[in-house]
């Protein structure tokens, strides 16, 4: 297993958490998927840790890119894929959406990149476009643009 401070560790945790949630199981680093323990809290903690690691990398000076946007949205995979449960403020999903909003506030170029990445996601995952578009509203966040295929990201300031 890699050192938790190495970047690949973050991707491993993201992968395990996302796939365990998609399969209807809970993932815990200490107990594993499907075993006993306080899995729901562990999944929430692990998701927040992954989100913080992506925020830290973006804040340190790296440009916002689509892999960061996709990784943040993976915290909402249960809602995006199944349409339930609705994300609540302070849930890992809403923390990710708030983080996504904060990533785009440093410049209009960052907000345009976030917009373009979201437009690409709703184009590629058309069957889940409505769920993706409703996330900011559930979380009480205004991204400054509408998540809609007709949105022209070039005009976002």
Automatic annotation (TrEMBL):
Assigned keywords, A-Z: Lipid-binding, Transport
Source organism superkingdom: Eukaryota
Pfam families attached to this UniProt entry: Tryp_alpha_amyl
Alphabetical list of InterPro entries matching this protein: Bifun_inhib/LTP/seed_sf (IPR036312), Bifunc_inhib/LTP/seed_store (IPR016140), Plant_nsLTP (IPR000528)
Transport in keyword set: yes
Alphabetized GO MF terms: lipid binding
GO biological process: lipid transport
UniProt-listed CDD domains: nsLTP1
Record's keyword annotation contains Transport: yes
Stretches assigned to the Bifunctional inhibitor/plant lipid transfer protein/seed storage helical domain: 66-153
UniProt cross-references to Gene3D superfamilies, sorted A to Z: Plant lipid-transfer and hydrophobic proteins (1.10.110.10)
Family: Belongs to the plant LTP family.
PANTHER family with a match to the protein in the record: NON-SPECIFIC LIPID-TRANSFER PROTEIN 2-RELATED
Protein name: Non-specific lipid-transfer protein 14
Organism: Coffea arabica
